[in-house]
Structure formats: structure tokens, C-alpha cells
Amino acid sequence: MSRKHDVQQPKAEVAPEVMAIHLKMKRRQKLGRGMIYLAAIVLSLWVLIPIIFITSMALTTPEMVRAYPKSILPFIPFSLDTLRFFLGSYGILDGIINSVIVAAITIVLSTLIAAPAGYALSRYIFRGRDVFRLSILAVRAFPIVVLSIPLAVAFLNLGIYDNVFSLGLMHTALVLPTAILVLSSVFASIPYELEEAAMVLGCSPVQAFRHVVVPLVLPGIAASAIFSFVLSWNEVFAASILTIQNRTLPAQVLATLSYSPDPYKFAGSFFMLIPAVIFIFIIRRYLFNMWGQVTK
Amino acid sequence: MTNQLKPPKRKKINWAPYLLIVPSFVYLLVFFAWPMVQSLILTVREDDVLLRVREDPTQTSPGIGSLERGVSVEILDQQANVISEDDLSEPGLITEVWYEVQVTDETGTMVAGWASEQRFRVRETDEDGKPIMATVRPIIGVDADPLTPIYSEPSTAGEIIAELNAQTPVDILSQRTLEIWFQISGEVDAKLITGWVQSRYIRTFPESTEGRIDRGDTGHLTFKYIRRMFNDRFFWPAFKTTLLLMVIIIPIQFILAIIMALVVQAKIKGSSIFLGIFSIALGVSDLAVGIVWYAIFTHYGYLNSILQGLGLISAPITYLSADTRHWIIIAIVLAEVWRATSLVMVIIVSGMQSISQDVLEAAEVFGATLWQRVTHVILPLLKPSLQVALILRTILALQVFAVVMAIGGGDVVTVLARETYRQYYDLRNFNMAAAFSSFILILSMIISVFYLRAVRTEQEASG
Amino acid sequence: MSEILIENVTKRFGDFVAVDDISLKIQDQEFMVLLGPSGCGKTTLLRTIAGLGMADEGRICIGDRDVTYLPPRDRKISMVFQNYAIFPHMTVFDNIAFGLKMNKFEKPEIEKRVQEAAAMLHIESMLDRYPSAMSGGQRQRVAVARAIAMKSEVLLMDEPLSNLDALLRLEMRAELKRLLAEIDATTIYVTHDQIEALSMGDRIAVIKDGIVQQCDVPDVVYDKPSNLFVGSFIGNPPMNFMDGQVDYSNGSVSVYIGDFRILPENEMHPLLKSYHNKTILLGIRAENMETLKQPADDALEVEVLVVEPLGSQNLLTVKIGEHIIKVATHPTFYIEPGMQVWLRFPVNKIRWLDEKTGAALYP
Asked: What is the overall mean pLDDT for chain B?
């Protein structure tokens, strides 16, 4: 029900000057939109095309890989020969297995160590909290180059050189700062009142944690774990320094760079790219939450 | 994104948080603090340069001086000392085996004692080849004592338990391997010192009492490696190239990242898909990216294929050779921009998301055009994020490695990280590798401090 | 001259119609309040006037300019946002000066205006501070100062007091009212708090579901609500509504609540005639009923259920038939739950509404 008080006669004619402004605004808006779309598409192509190139090289015959000129259209012909050749090459299958093992060690170790620290940072105020937080931020960008050399020498002396476990330790160190920061913000996003409510209803602190916090943080922990996996899977410098016989995939590819044929290289690049790309695409939403909190 | 939880300010049990952070703290200490210190130490410390000369032929004896590696010495005497099992495999050891023997003396009692195997001739061995019975060898020499002493412990410093005649049959109970200690005299600082050293450090010459100190057991500080690094023929090219890449890549990346962030924030249809695509590069390996762009720039690669397909060239151009350094640099720049822009973009987008819509609307109501809104509101509020991104990206740029290796091979175009790798892997010189990595470390620290200072003075200036 | 003309403005979000064909004319320098519950469209309407969202249909004119398609900065308006929208990276001075800077004022003029605005809001001592070092109430003052420094012809305010605590809100309400009387802008003020609306507005437009229910001066809106919604929205406690049976016999109209007979005013008889033998709604405010401790012929007996001593009055909850209504009495009127009181209904205070539509009957 409406009462139209104090109203002019409805729908007066729209003055032409006003219409002109209106149309100009709409045109400018459309142009703006168009430019944004254009930029978005150009940038997307910029990101996707190199990946398409390498995928097409990896999924075709070795002859096509060596051929020139290369065709822009991918997968002509489609073939698994290059991949088969790559997988059959010396050290590759072992390399993949080693990479998986190292990544697995990294995930497990980093989660086990980072989760308590993240919880402590998010729930407690204690002396040294800011110092601890600052030191984590400080080591986040620490050059892996600097860490690798002394640790390699130390591992040599300790006799644990050239095995996947020590590389796993190294990768855990790499991943740990980011994992701690991410997990602390994940825990912080769960109000402490939930744990208090559980404790009022009869849980011990540990039970409250288990029944209330754990289910809620699992997605965040999973995202952090995936991030750790990707980091470890891709890591090449420390892997090259710390392993000789038990190489990971990137270390193996790097070591043979100077004499490996193109099909080998491309297949290797494909193998390194694809799992990581898929994983990152899956957890892309979490990345923004992660980096958002982490840059504070 | 505001954090709606305030951590409970409770006087809880004090030790809980500390317990929880102990593992991380320890890990960070061991894997960051220690290697950092160790890297710096390795750079300036030369080990195995000096050999400590001791008063007595035991490890616990005080040192009376040090001789430098390479000095000639005169070997005056020698003595055997027990060494541990682990040291047995060390190369260069001169060892002697001592037997614990048992014999019935004149009174009919069984006595046991130790003596060098040189004093015995083995008569019987068991299935494993271990000697179990021997006879005492006669002593040759005019003034030599005809009796062979056996000691209470495997050392001539032990008590003499009995003395055996030649040809006495003995049972061998056990054996011990001893290292020979030499009593040497050598010159240091124009002075002659005499003392005992382990044989493992001395290179002996046959038919001679001369020896030479092969290596030492302690080190000293030296700038030798630092000097060598600065004089290394790859150092300056690597340094310059690293800086060049930094200066070109980082501005391009920031501009690109801001554009990407604005596109994502513009909330057009499908912006979440674009976001996903832009973030893909976050997960890529730098080695893989290097190979991808190698595939584009290589002789039979995509760039030439496209150019030829468009009719712009008639034969493939060589981009990645020693003569075309600038093309290699361009390829590396493209690869790095392609790879690492997502990182900057993610940081910027998160920063943008924390700018409340209200503030932008207020700016618009009070007269700001789009450009003015960007410069007066968005960019200032993005500053903290941009700073973080800048520091992170710069430090990471100092470590660029695999991309350079994949595209340039690491020799025509080299960077600091590649040189670290070369020193360690190809040249096996750990100290030099540490020198290069310490250089990277110090550069990173200088840059961080510089950025943080620059930010602080800016804040002070604006009041 | 800055009267604001809103003509058949409609704004949709997908299928949802937030503002449904609203037309309003706001006089030059008038203080118009847009009042309504959450989601009624008042903020959407305000934003459309501001230019933060284009109207789908209709026209908006400020003065003699048609601003319907103009961006916000060309409309020459000032706005105070609900969450203040203060620029966190600028000092108070720069915040207040922002609009002036964007409109290219000279520095001495900017300085003067900022000082004036700050003085009016009593924040002259805080000009060098940053928002993060200020309380919510202080930030709100900065938001208002920023808006009035512009000396725009039109001032829009989106629930500026809703984020303040109760005591501060009371203070600021009075201060704002006095301040806004001093400046000569046409003000549109959005709120869901009917006390604010009643106390501050020259006129109130009550909005529900995107439609203006009533637009009039506070007295009229309060005493003569145009429908059930307005009556229950305005006033604390809300207006009471009861069923009555209309009887038209012997040339006169009576309304019965149970057996109790009420004789409406003469002007109402022609309208009420048509409701013969039907139910009609009576609306009366809690404070408009007389309460008696003894029975009287023209008073209805009711049972007291709850007594709330509120200090300035006693609020009784009483039962009439199946209706539960609130009655306000003088604080010294002593009564206990379970006791009877007798209510008198002054007919000039009764509002008559159609039972089906909820609309008020006007003579």
C-alpha cells in the first residue's frame, strides 16, 4: 500500500542533454568493461599458452618434438611415446618415487611441527610471542642457497648424506615458516568460544580441541599440506646439492640438462608441472586466505 | 580481512604455549640459525692448516705448538697408541697391531700382557685367520736387549709384566690396532719445536727419517676464500647478471601484478576463473618453467616456428647461444616474469580485499575520479602489501637458479646461485661455495634493511 | 535552491525489488528521515540518490538538475556512511579536507573550512591524529566533519548513529540536530530507530518493502499512522490494535468490543457505516488511555497481567478478550498483576483501520 504524497506527475520527458550524458556514461562503462575483459583474456592466454606448448610436446612423438617448424596446434599426433621414453630413462622412475617420498616426509613433518606452534600463536599471549612471530616472518624468505651448503657439509660429516630423509628434513625447514603462519591464522579463525562451550558441556581441553577445532581446521590444514607438497615437489637447488644417487625428479633433470635430448627435457618439465598446477588450482581460494593473513 | 578473534588474555598455565612452540623453535634454530652461522664460518675458516704438536704421545697431552701444513719435519721416534674402531678406516694411518699374549712363566703361573706383533711370529691361526699361537722372535742387534717385554696395556707406557725369551711359545688372546705416533721436530717462526703427532698427519718417505706435514687438525681464520671469490672469473659476471635481472624483472612484475589484481577485483563475470588461471604459476617449478621457455626460444622451438609460420623469417634464428647473450637474458626475463608474477599478485589482491568498499565509495562521493581513487586511496592502502611483496620478491630474485640453468646452461649466462652450485658440485670446494652463498645472504640482509629503513623514513617524513 | 525530487524510482537486484516505484519531494533545507526496518529499501534509495547504484527506472532531480545518470562526484552531495568510511591512511585534517582537495579548492580556503568543520564537531585538537588512534565516536565526528566541510547543498546520512553505544547515541542525536539546524543543506537521513526519526526529522517517510507507507511530519505519523505497519513501527510501545464489531443502527454507528460500546467521532460515521456487521480495527496508544481503579459506565474492565515499573511510567500489560495490549499509567498509579483496572478510550485518540488491508480510515 503506498501513499504518494507531494509528487509531480509521473514520467516527465527526459531532457536530451541528460540523455546524452546517460548514453556517454553507458558507452564509457561498456568500454571500461571491454578493456577489462580484454586485459583478462590477454593475461590468461599469456599464462596458459606456454603450458599448452609444453603439454603438447610431452604428449606427442619424439620425432614431432624434434621437428621444425613446430605446429601450434597441440597433440598432432597424440602419443605417449615421449612420456614413455622419459619414464624409461635412467633414474627417472626412481626420481619420481624419491620426490614423492620426500614430499610426503615434508608434509607430515611440517604439519606435525607447525600445527602446535600455529595453535600456540593463535590462542595464547605469552612473552616472546612477537619475537617468535617476527623471526618466522624473517626466515620466510631465507635463501635456500645459504642453508643448503652448510647442511650438506654437516650431513656429509654425520653420514646421512644423499638420502631422502635428510632432504625431507631440509624441505621441512623450507616449508615450516609459511606453514606456521598459515596454520596460526587457520586456528585464529575459529572462535575460542567454541572450545569454551565444549568445555562447559563437559569436555577436557584436549577433547574440546579434538571435537571442535580439528574438524574445523582440517580444510585449512589440507590446504597447507598441499602447499607444502608443491613446494617440496618443485624444489631443485637443495635437492641437487643433497642427493647424488638418490635423486629427486628435479635434481635428476637438472643434472642431465647439458646433454639430455629435447623430448626428455620436455617430458620432465611436463611431469614437474602438472601435479603442482592441478593442486594449486584446487586450493586457489585458500591461497588468498593464507597470504592475506600472512602478510599482516 | 579482520581477525575477529582476540586471543584470550588468560593467565593460563605458563608452559603450554612454550611447549607447543618448542619443536618449531628448535627446528628453526637447527635449520636456519646454525646453517647461517656455519655458512659464514666456512667462508672465513680454513681447516687442516695447522697441526698441533703435543708433549706426549697421547690425545690428552697438552699442545706445545703448531706446525703449518707442508713443513718438513724430522722423525725422531715413534710409539704405538690405541685408536678407536671408527678411526681405523681413515686413510693415511700408519698402524701397528699389538697382541695380548698369555704365557706360563718360570714359576708356572699364567701371565698375560701386551706386545707389538712385530715381536712375534705367528704359528697357528683359527678358521677365521686370526692368530692364536705364536713364538717370540729373537731380537737382532748388538746392543739390543735380548728379552721382549710384555706390558699391562697395549702401550709401551704400561707396566712391564714380564720379559720373555726368544722362541717362547705364547697364546694370543686378543689383538688391538694401534696408531703410530711420531716424535718429530720441525721449524715454526724460526724456532725448532719437538713433540708428538699422530702418524696420520705425516707423509713419510721411504728409507728416510724425513717427513712432511700432510694436513693439519685445526684451522684458522682467513680471507683467502673471500679474495678468491672476488677474483673468480665468474663472480663479477654472475653478480652483474643477477642485479640486472632483478632490476628488469621486478618492476615489470609489479605492474603486471597490479593489472591482474585490478582485473580480478573488477568483479566481471568469470573473475574467479581468471583468478584461478592467474594463480596457476604459483605452483610451478622454476626448473620446469625454464624448460618451457627453452622450448619457446630454442633453435627448433616455438618462437621460430611461429615466426616462420607467419612468414616473418625464412630460417630459424638462434637465440640461445654464446653470441646472443642479450637474447638469453630476454628469455630469462620472460620466464621469470611468467613464473613469479602470481606471487606478487596474490599478495596485492589480499591487500586489496582488505580495503573496505565504503572507503572507496566515500572517495567517489567526495569527488575523486577513478585515477584519483587509485592514487589517493588504493595505492596508499596497498603500501604495506607492496612492501612485503617487494622484499620477498627481491630476496627470491637473488636466488634465481634453475631458470638460468635451463635456458642458458649456466655458463654463457651465470648468476650467483649458479656459481654457488658450481663451486660445490663441479669444483667440490665447500669453502668457496659457502663464500658465494654467504655473499647472497649478506646481499639479502642489506636489501631488507635498506627497504625497511626507506619505509620508516618515509613514515617519519609524512609525520 | 536544492529541493530534491524523487520520481517513480525503482531499483532491482535480480528479481528482488528493493525500491518499488517510490516518489518523494523533499523541500529545500528540509530534514527528511527515511525510516524503516532492515531490508526495507531505505539505504538502497539513499544510495541511488547518492549515485552509488543507478536507478533502474525513474528520475532524480536535485534543484533544477536531473542527476539520474550522473556519477556521485558530479551530483554535488555530501554523505556520512554508516561505518564512517574514514580514510585510515590519512590524518583527521586530510580526511576532512579530502572533498575540498578533490574539488580543487585553494589551500587557505581548505584550511579555513577544515577548521570550521572541526570546531563544529569539537575535534579541533585531533587534526593531526590518525583514525586508528581514535574511538568510534570520534571517528564518527570526523565523518560528519568531512561531510559538512564541503558545504554541499545536499547532505545524505546513512544510519550515522547506529554504531555508537546507547549513551553516546543520545548525546550525538541532540548535537547532530543542533548542528544540522545551523547549516543550510537539505538533509536526507536514513535510520531504523523510530526515536531518532521522531526527534530529528522535519518529515518522516516510513518505508516498508520498498514502498513509502506514510510521509508526514512526526506528530501526524505518530498520532495518525496511515496503516497498521506504521502504527506498530512508530512509538514505544507500539500502537495497540484491537478488533471491534461495527453496528449501524438507528442512524448512528457504534463499535463494540465485546459488550463494551464505543461511540466514534461524528466525522467517522460516514466511513464506518459501510462496515456494518463487520470487524474493524481500533488503534490506540498506550499513553492515550485513561486508567481507573473503579468501574465506570464508559470504562472497560480488563485484567492486569504484568506490571512494569519503568520509572517515568508504569507499563501495564492487560488482556481484552483475546487481545493483549499495553497501557501506560502515571508511575504513582499503584496496581498489581491479577487485579482489575477500567480503561477509558478517548475517541479522538482512536485510529480506525480496515481489518483486511490494515489501512487507516480518513474522514
From this structure: 83
pTM for the whole thing?
A: 0.72
Residue with cell 577513478: B370
CA gap A221, A119 in Å, rounded = 12
Q: pLDDT per residue over A278-294, tens digit each?
A: 887 777 776 666 655 44
More confident residue, B248 or B158: B248
Prior bond of B138 cis (ω within 30°): no
C153 and C207 belong to one structural domain: yes
Contact A8 C357 (CB under 8 A): no
- Closest residue in chain B to residue C105, using alpha carbons only: B367
Q: What is the distance between the alpha carbons of residues C261 and C344, in angstroms, rounded to a whole number?
A: 11
- Identify the pLDDT of residue C36: 94
pLDDT digits 0-9 by tens, B119-162: 888 888 888 888 888 888 888 777 777 888 888 888 777 788 88
Superfamily (CATH H level) for B228-461 = MetI-like (1.10.3720.10)
Report the 10 Å Cβ neighbour count for B146. 10
| B 339-378 near C (Cβ less than 8 A) | 356, 358-359, 361-369, 372, 376-377
Q: What's the structural domain count of chain C?
A: 2
Q: What is the pLDDT of residue A6?
A: 41
Cβ-based contacts of C52 with chain B (< 8 Å): 361, 364-365
Q: Is residue C332 part of a domain?
A: yes
CATH number of the A89-291 domain: 1.10.3720.10
User: Cα B359–B362–B368 angle (5° rounding)?
Assistant: 105
Distance from the B264 Cα atom to the nearest Cα atom in chain C, whole angstroms: 21
pLDDT (average), residues A234-240 = 92
Report CA dihedral (B131, B146, B80, B196) to the nearest 10 degrees.
Answer: -170
Rounded to whole angstroms, the maximal C-alpha distance in chain B is: 119
**pLDDT at residue A172 greater than cutoff 90:** yes
Mean pLDDT in residue range C35-57: 91
Please report whether residue C285 resides in a domain: yes
> Does some domain include residue C363?
no
Domain that holds residue C172: 4-233
